[in-house]
Amino acid sequence: MKYEVRFSGSGGQGIILASVILGTAAALHEKKHSIQSQAYGPEARGGASKADVIISDDPIKYPKAREIDAMVCLTQKAAKKYIGNMKKGGTVIIDSDFVELPESDDYKLIKLPMSSTTLDKQGKLIALNVVSLSALVTITKCVSRESLEKAVLESAPKGTEKFNLEALSIGRELAISIK
């Protein structure tokens, strides 16, 4: 099994950290092969950014994602810029508060109000990346819930563990609400 995931958004939204956490969950807690790469414009903060993770049962021969199985889009600019590499039949999860994409026969579109729900439940958007990561994992099952939780707690700064666990719960609830 080989699975390619892309996080896309704006510089400063934590999409690179989300991809590192996913790669960690796969490699350290599920003993799979994983590789992470990232790209962002010269403006870094505020510009369209992407971070890719490849998860595989077998060694990964090429380090760049080419056919994305699942993508999270947090901004319109990033969605338009990075949608092109979606695998036919892949899953696109958008933050419906800020992103609009047309329905397509090429991918399954899932609209989740991630920003407004995160803001409503946590009072700030600092853990939006963890919310989106949790929604992705709940929908795709690319890693287990337990592995994701361990990887999030390992990367969370001291004192933010409860906040990050809450963010995982918010993303999971959002994803379950669409099923």
Key attributes of the depicted protein:
179 residues; alpha/beta; Pyruvate-ferredoxin Oxidoreductase, domain 3; six-stranded mixed β-sheet
What does the model show?
- This protein is α/β, with parallel strands linked by helices and 179 residues long.
- It has a single domain, classed as Pyruvate-ferredoxin oxidoreductase, PFOR, domain III (Pyruvate-ferredoxin Oxidoreductase, domain 3).
- Helix content is 40%, strand content 27%.
- The chain has helices spanning 15-29, 76-82, 114-122, 128-140, 145-155, 161-177, and strands spanning 2-10, 33-40, 48-56, 68-73, 86-95, 107-112.
- Strands 2-3-1-4-5-6 form a 6-stranded mixed beta sheet.
- The radius of gyration is 15 Å and the shape is globular.
- The relative contact order is 0.18.
Secondary-structure element series: EHEEEHEEHHHH
Q: How confident overall, as mean pLDDT?
A: 94
| Global shape | globular
* Radius of gyration using CA atoms only: 15 Å
For CATH, the homologous superfamily is named as Pyruvate-ferredoxin oxidoreductase, PFOR, domain III
Low-pLDDT runs of 5+ residues are none
Strand order of the largest sheet: 2-3-1-4-5-6
* Number of alpha- plus pi-helical segments: 6
Number of domains: 1
CATH architecture: 3-Layer(aba) Sandwich
Strand content range: 25-35%
Q: How much helix is in the residues?
A: 40-55%
The protein's oligomeric status is: single chain
CATH topology: Pyruvate-ferredoxin Oxidoreductase, domain 3
CATH class: Alpha Beta
How far apart lie the N and C ends? Answer: 24 Å
Structural class: alpha/beta
Largest sheet: 6 strands, mixed
**Topology, number of strands:** 6
